[in-house]
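Reading a protein record of the kind used here takes only a little practice. Think of the row as the fold of the chain written in a discrete alphabet. With that in mind, consider the following protein and its fold in token form:
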Amino acid sequence: MKKIILPMVMIFTMVMYPQMKKNGTIYDQHPAISVVEEMQQAFVAGDSAKVASYLTGDFKMYDGFNSNPDYEGRTRDQFLNSIKGWQKYTDYMSLERFPGAYPDALEYKKDESGLWVQTWDMLKGMDKETGVKLNMPVHRLYKMDDNNKIQMLITYDDNAVWMKNREAFNPRTNGTIYNQHENINTVRKMVGALENGDVDKGFSYFTDDARFTSLDMKEGEFRTTKDEKEHFNEFLKGYDIEGMDMRGYPDYLEYEIGKSKLVQSWWDFRIKRKSDGKKYKIPIFFIHYFNDDGKITRETGYYTLNSMKE
């Protein structure tokens, strides 16, 4: 068996080895890297004259995600004119190296591909009109000429951010708001049952795998229906509920985007501590998420019980 395996390994090595061929040099420090990063900062500063000094006359810019076969990219003049748009519509713009990353200069030998600089940056800013954050990682490839001027730019960024910003200019609806609905009734019945100490009925309106969060919990922390029920029963040992009074009126929202269904409601939670008769009034804002069967799948409570520790 060894006699068979050894020749096979040698053949495999002989086949793979010729496929390894060096095609140039990679630099982490190079004058071209300085040219690229200086140009980028001039762009952020809105200095179109300085940006122009780093570009060749036949400069072209391409969107790396554009799949249009007829796409011809942006010319030098179009790229320089875009600087005015960035300055006009963007606040707090910056472009810095992505944390932990650094640019490379790649000097290719094959087919006289020449020198390229690739960067990994973080673009930050806010659209002045919409308030949409433009924070995103950006990867760019720069083709340099023999004089270390930029001949071509290919950019890869997050098109979803640009789409979100474009959509923000056009008002649109996103579902329906109800002030009367069966799911609102469910929330009222659930709170009413807990107010009257009917814990089993109160938690019967939730799914078994529902999740409960409040301001007293750490981010990512939650309780299950079983846990929350036990927690509530323990709470009743030390406190009497004197009332859970609705403030204003609740809303039921059915969203088009994401198809979410939720009830938001406002309450005053009035309780008395059994040990000393001390009373508390706790304002609560609830968001209850529903499934298609009318069961509550998640409760987000914007309240804190820390004041009761006094």
